[in-house]
Amino acid sequence: DAMVIQNPRYQVTQFGKPVTLSCSQTLNHNVMYWYQQKSSQAPKLLFHYYDKDFNNEADTPDNFQSRRPNTSFCFLDIRSPGLGDAAMYLCATSKESLVGFIPSSYEQYFGPGTRLTVT
Amino acid sequence: DQQVKQNSPSLSVQEGRISILNCDYTNSMFDYFLWYKKYPAEGPTFLISISSIKDKNEDGRFTVFLNKSAKHLSLHIVPSQPGDSAVYFCAASQLTSGTYKYIFGTGTRLKVLA
Q1: Res A56: pLDDT
Q2: Is B82 in a helix, a strand, or coil?
Q3: How many whole angstroms separate alpha carbon A12 and alpha carbon A117?
Q4: How far is B60 from chain A (nearest CA, A)?
Q5: Which of A70, B45, B57, B62 has the fewest CB atoms lying closer than 10 Å?
Q6: Which residues, 6+ apart, have CB-to-CB distance to B5 below 8 Å?
Q7: Residue B34: predicted pLDDT
Q8: Which fold has domain A4-118?
């Protein structure tokens, strides 16, 4: 089945120790997103890639970086995790193409998430 | 500033009855609205959507209503089933810099009682 895969599902890192979360997709979607979700809060968009074009949200901390080496993979790097970065990190994809300014698809496909713990 | 709000964190409904989940938004530029369902230990899955040019969209037991003047949308599930017990997220999208960005609400936890 085509899907969005996130590894690992649970990640424990130490305060200040760099950590990388990975996301892969078999949907061949051109857009990939990273969201941060803290307990009882809405998923918050950190950044997204439209093909190879990187789009950073204005309020995403510099501590968060992303890489997309190819269509299938996208990585979230947290350079110096703080206690406040403990959260669920969700990867999502969508297939977007605009024909006459009307998108072909709106829905996003989410992975199961990686729960990050910072000790 | 929360642009998409789900003011009810939880809702309990008897099996077979109607579940109504509500969502309010503040940005009149949103042009598409979506509902996602999330089970524990899984990512959100798309449920149903509605364009801002419509006021109703129906898919089986699920119907979404949009009231643009009130900046309000609702998801109706009828009849509710125990398998519908999950967290439901409302999301709104806006075309920005050539791609769609999505703003999510905080979710409503629905419990359908057998």
Answers
A1: 87
A2: helix
A3: 5
A4: 18
A5: A70
A6: B23, B24, B25, B26, B105, B106
A7: 94
A8: Immunoglobulin-like (2.60.40)
pLDDT value for B37 = 97
Over residues A9-29, the mean pLDDT reads 96
- The pLDDT of residue B94: 82
Per run of 10 residues, the mean pLDDT along chain B (length 114 residues) is 90 97 94 93 92 94 97 97 97 80 94 96
Nearest CA in chain A to B6: A42
The domain in which residue B83 lies consists of 4-113
Query: What is the CATH number for B108?
Result: 2.60.40.10
Number of domains in chain B: 1
Query: Token digits for A98?
Result: 């605009």
Check A42 against B45: CB less than 8 A apart. no
Return the amino acid letter for B50. Answer: I
Task: Give domain limits for chain A.
Answer: 4-118
Q: What is the pLDDT of residue B56?
A: 96
> Interface of chain B against chain A, CB under 8 Å?
2, 4, 9, 32, 34, 36, 41-46, 49, 89, 93, 95, 97-107
B66/B105 Cα distance (integer angstroms): 16
Contacts of B46 in chain A (CB under 8 A): 107-109
How confident is the model over A53-67, as a mean pLDDT?
A: 91
AA letter at B73? L
Distance from CA of B10 to the nearest CA of A (A): 11
